[in-house]
Write a structure and sequence with these properties.
Layout lengths: L14 E5 L1 H7 L9 H10 L4 E4 L10 H11 L6 E6 L5 H10 L6 E4 L19 H13 L3 E6 L6 H6 L4 E5 L1 H6 L5 H17 L3 E5 L7 H7 L3 E6 L1 H10 L1 H15 L4
Helix pairs in contact: 2-3, 9-11, 10-11
The chain binds 1-deoxy-D-xylulose-5-phosphate (DXP) and the ligand NCC(=O)COP(=O)(O)O.
The ligand NCC(=O)COP(=O)(O)O binds next to strand 8 and helix 10.
Length: about 260
């Protein structure tokens, strides 16, 4: 199958999953419970976001344990929308996957990210073949709970077959290199790595997500160039925009950026 024949390209729109980490970060600076993370998530869904993402880091610097359960419980009111948890499956992610499933709470996707416990922010993807054998059984355990697995990956076309071979349903491209290059002279070179990696993934029926430092300026161009992106998860810039514009206007504007990518200029 070529990229252009993939059912997710070009007619299907990329889904927007809003990462609410940074709402929790602000909330955690006082003991007042504001801003309310669950309310933020539901306002984003009300505005049309197709999903919510959280990355509960082991130090709970932003998303805390209770947030994960409360957001998941809220997702029950939003059938058809997706809850995505990111994290390192060798730290705390598997516990959430098992526990939510045992409680019958919604969880649609686990994104495995190879961060260290005290990592400032995510800055690299999994490595193959080094990580292959240890990831396989964990992917199987998440699948046994009916949950999709996406692997956070650098845009390396050569690594797509290995991600598929360990059982991943999707990869999430770490987009910081593109965001950093945009709109400078290195942008096209940065983009071409994502385009090639996406083509390689789509050709073997491996789904493609993307995220990290995407924003209203760089999103449309990314989606125009990179085929078959099923979901973008966006947090830092989106929450910063929401401080100025409010959740509704912000989410609608990100959805407009996505729509524009599918409307040929
Ligand atoms: C995997 C990824 O790119 C995001 O989860 C990013 O790491 C956000 O995490 P922080 O909000 O902790 O920076
Ligand atoms: N997976 C990426 C994500 O959830 C959000 O990343 P960012 O927009 O906060 O950089």
């Amino acid at each position: 199958m070529t990229a252009d024949q993939h059912p997710n390209h070009p007619s299907a729109r990329t889904a927007l999953s809003v990462n609410v980490n940074k709402v929790a970060l602000l909330r955690n600076t006082r003991h007042l419970g504001i801003p309310d993370v669950v309310k933020a998530a539901s306002l984003c869904l009300e505005a049309g976001a197709q999903g919510i993402t959280v990355h509960p880091r082991p130090d709970e610097r932003h998303i805390r344990r209770d947030d994960v359960y409360e957001i998941s419980a809220m997702m029950k009111d939003w059938p058809g929308r997706e809850f995505n948890i990111e994290g390192n499956p060798f730290h705390n992610l598997m516990e959430f996957a098992h526990d939510l499933s045992a409680r019958g709470l919604p969880l649609h996707q686990c994104t495995f990210v190879p961060d260290s416990e005290d990592q400032f922010t995510s800055d690299h993807g999994w490595s193959f073949p080094q990580d292959a054998e240890r990831l396989k059984p964990l992917i199987e355990q998440v699948h046994a709970r009916g949950v999709r697995v996406s692997l956070f990956m650098d845009p390396d076309a050569q690594a797509m077959a290995a991600a598929k071979a360990v059982g991943a349903d999707r990869v999430e491209f770490y987009t910081e290199s593109y965001a950093r290059a945009w709109p400078g002279p290195g942008k096209n070179k940065a983009l071409s790595r994502f385009t090639e990696a996406a083509r390689a993934a789509v050709a073997i029926d491996l789904g493609v997500n993307a995220g990290h430092d995407l924003n209203r300026d760089n999103l449309t161009e990314f989606l125009r160039a990179v085929p078959g992106v099923q979901e973008v998860s966006i947090g830092h810039a989106l929450v910063a925009d929401a401080l100025e514009l409010g959740y509704e206007a912000t989410v609608k504007d990100y959805l407009r950026c996505i729509d524009e990518a599918f409307t040929r200029a």
